[in-house]
Amino acid sequence: MEIQLLWWHWMVLGMLLMLAEIFVPSFTIFWFGLAGLVVAVLLWLAPELAISWQVVIWALASIGFTIAWFRFFKPTMTDRTKAGLSREAVVGEIGQVIRDPQDGRRGVVRFSLPLLGDDEWEFVTTEELKVGDRVVVVDVSGNTLVVAKKGN
Predict the structure, then answer these.
(1) Following CA atoms 64, 69, 71, 75 in sequence, which dihedral angle do they give, to the nearest 10 degrees?
(2) Phi/psi zone of residue 6: left (φ > 0), alpha (ψ -120 to 50 degrees), beta?
(3) Is residue 146 within 8 Å of 137, Cβ to Cβ?
(4) What is the mean pLDDT of residues 87-106?
(5) DSSP 3-state assignment of 126?
(6) What mean pLDDT comes out for the span 85-109?
(7) Residue 59 and residue 142: Cα distance in Å, rounded?
(8) What is the DSSP string of 32-83?
(9) Which of the four pLDDT bands, split at 50, 70 and 90, describes residue 115?
(10) What is the three-class DSSP state of 30?
């Protein structure tokens, strides 16, 4: 009994493998599915392609796509945001003092855009500040910003 695969068999296999990526988030099955689509196109163009060559092309394309993914594309997709890096996200931001620090009480600075989910933050400083001064964040100490007067 001879097995004959048609181009649409490979198309269905490729799509099923790509859909399997939804349930098995490894991002490698996707490339096997993409290779199946490549074989489907080749078989559509050359319907006399032997099944052994189909499997070899599918395996080589799967390996090629997987290597290309891990070697070239995945490194460029690394997270370059500042998420999870609170200090790096706020240092250098400029705000305006809305409550000056007095009698051991921390001051409050407001930013035009929320920093880490809030637009008002308590701060400490070694300088004398008053309401309305513009400050720049120079560091983070726990949940408190360390600021300096802008222009210093």
Answers:
(1) 170
(2) beta
(3) yes
(4) 87
(5) coil
(6) 86
(7) 53
(8) HHHHHHHHHHHHHH-TT--HHHHHHHHHHHHHHHHHHIIIIIGGGGS--S-T
(9) confident
(10) helix
Amino acid at 147: V
Tell me, what amino acid is at 112?
S
Distances (CA, A) of 133 to 80, 113, 138: 32, 17, 15
- Take residue 134 and report the two structure tokens written for it: 């513009």
DSSP letter at 28? Answer: S
Instruction: Answer for the pair 149, 134: CB distance below 8 angstroms, yes or no.
Output: yes
What is the predicted pLDDT for the residue at 25? 75
CB atoms within 10 A of CB 59: 13
b/e 22-44 (16+ beta carbons within 10 angstroms → b): eeeeeeebbbbbbbbbbbbebbe
DSSP line for 102-122:
BTTBPEEEEEEEEETTEEEEE
148 sits in which H/E element: strand 144-149
Task: Give me the torsion for CA of 130, 133, 139, 145, rounded to 10°.
Answer: 60
pLDDT digits (tens, 9 = 90+) for 19-45: 998 888 777 899 999 999 999 999 999
